């Protein structure tokens, strides 16, 4: 008689183990099927979407990481830079800095006793925070204040220019490279020499802006850490002017940064269009206008008496009525041009005509052209 599994303990244990293994295999098969189905779904979804290549990404952003064009701005970059004010809207800036280049070329030749060539590299609009983060180190930053505009500007001198100027001032040979030690701060002598260079540049900048607006640039402090040269908020727009200074085989760059808030007091002047470098008013036109005004004919009235009467009395006047004038025989006559009283005189007679003899000096207008100009300057200063 065969063993009954219900009575044999070993047979019962084997049966339970087989059942457990079968359940595990079934569960594993279900999990495998679930994973396979999810992978098929994800692959089908990924196949439906097309990935963008690098050219399409660059076209969408408007610039590539390898090459950034400063003149052609489109896409997302155009949206980002839309808040910046382009220097092309302020045409006088280019004329001012052309004048600055000529002044600096002459001044630096006298300062270094060497052949110095100054050229304008570019004028761009940047955000102050982006510019501060892009300054290469080591550099020397000079913070200066525009007194009449009541704001600040920034001069940045790179290390090549600094050591080239020091090498020239100390009599270095031409053709020798000005090597510097990494991490070494500028000494007191070097800082003093560069301060003299900065003073020369600021004086020339004053002369360049003088035809537009007299301004005094005073050096406030020198910094080597860009974080300590914060003169504006990071998101504020600013004008960046890069100048290249070459001394034969030596030289470097100097950058002048003017926040938009700094030049706001003279924004209207910078927006004007002038031919060449002829600033201010036209003296020829002023002389012609003064001649024509002096030759103009005006009508003058001699007023003997004025009085106010009720309208009822005026309407009741008739032929033969008498209007008494409250005047004395020696009363003065007012001489007027329109509504303006010019002078007073006494009435008399010359031949067969009535005449007026001027008895008091001519009353000149209180507001002259010079006072009008001064009032305009005061109002502009108050607005700024």
Provide an overview of this structure.
This protein has eleven helices and ten strands. By secondary structure, the chain is α+β, with helices and mostly antiparallel strands. The chain has three domains: 37 residues; 188 residues, Chemotaxis protein chec; 85 residues, Surface presentation of antigens (SPOA) (Roll), CATH 2.30.330.10. Helix 4 crosses helix 7. The longest helix is centred in the first third of the chain and has 40 residues.
Strand percentage: 15-25%
Q: And the CATH topology of the largest domain?
A: Chemotaxis protein chec
- Helix/strand structural class: alpha+beta
What is the element string, with H for helices and E for strands?
HHHHEHEEHHEEEHHEHEEEH
Low-confidence stretches: 42-48, 65-72
CATH class of the largest domain: Alpha Beta
Gap between N and C termini? 118 Å
Strands ordered across the widest β-sheet: 1-5-6-3-2-4
Number of helices: 11
Number of domains: 3
Number of DSSP E strands: 10
Oligomer description: single chain
Provide the gyration radius in Å. 43 Å
Q: What's the main sheet like?
A: 6 strands, antiparallel
**Shape, per Cα inertia axes:** elongated
CATH architecture of the largest domain: 3-Layer(aba) Sandwich
Q: Please tell me the overall pLDDT.
A: 75
Helix content: 25-40%
CATH homologous superfamily identity of the largest domain: CheC-like
